[in-house]
Amino acid sequence: MPKRTLVGLFGLLFLLLAGGSAAVAAGRSNDPEGVSEARVVQASAPGIRMAAAIEPGGVLVRKRGVASVTHPATGTYCITPKTRIAMDIDRVVAQVTVEYGQSSGTANLAQIYASAGDCDPGAVEVMTFSDTGSGFEPSDSVAFNLVVP
pTM value? Predict the structure, then answer.
């Protein structure tokens, strides 16, 4: 295949993928036009029991093995796995990271809080914080990703 044709095909693929990414991003809770139509999609996470992408305020946008997300207090989120997932929440090593692009501010934290008691038994508790200038405070302006292998 000539180089020119190959370069053209890669260019077309890039445009298709970029357009698809823009379409997926439209309608999120922090859309510049104020549209809030977050749709939960099945996350691609082979070999993972539970995964979630959660936007500020507890908006679930991608999930795998997640039954629900609750938000009992500022900066506190309870992610409950589907009942069919065989998982002892006291023995798993859950991982959480801040999703920078959907979060407000630049100094944010997301942490697992094991056995905190703010969530129902069997749920993973995540706490989020933002730097207010005088220290980190619980915050609802932090998006995060959660993975439970």
Answer: 0.68
